User: Fold this.
Amino acid sequence: MVENVNFSSDVVVFEDLSACNAKLCEEMKNYSYEIIVLGLDCEWVSRERQGESPVSPVALLQLAFPNGTCFLLRLCKMEARLPDKLREILEDRNILKSGVGISEDAKKLNTCYGLVMQGCVDLRHVALRCQGYVEHCISEGGS
Assistant:
């Protein structure tokens, strides 16, 4: 049974660079003295099957905060630029970014924006380590 979990969340969609930058600055003030782990995922159109150049820009970046707030950044509408605060967050190794296959997202952001993302944690690796721990506890008779 799961107790004391808040499932309410806010989803905010951004298409404007300056509005996104301002809201990111505001949101990050909530975590100025904490270790922070953000959820991150990028979406883009694969053009390989269409016979076009396989290089296509990131269309959407999803950024989830510990309080349940999720920002959907429509980068395809931001004139091929990243908000300054987003770049700062993604390049900060002390702000952990977690996701499944996050290294592919990091590579894509590097290709499209010259961004070197730091502090990435791939949840597949975390899951494998946790699975090993659980299996060890079960075999040892622990809980």
Remarks:
- The domain at 11-140 is CATH 3.30.420.10 (Nucleotidyltransferase; domain 5).
- Residues 11 and 105 are 21 Å apart (CA to CA).
- Residues 123-140 form the longest helix (18 residues).
- The first strand starts at residue 11 and ends at 14.
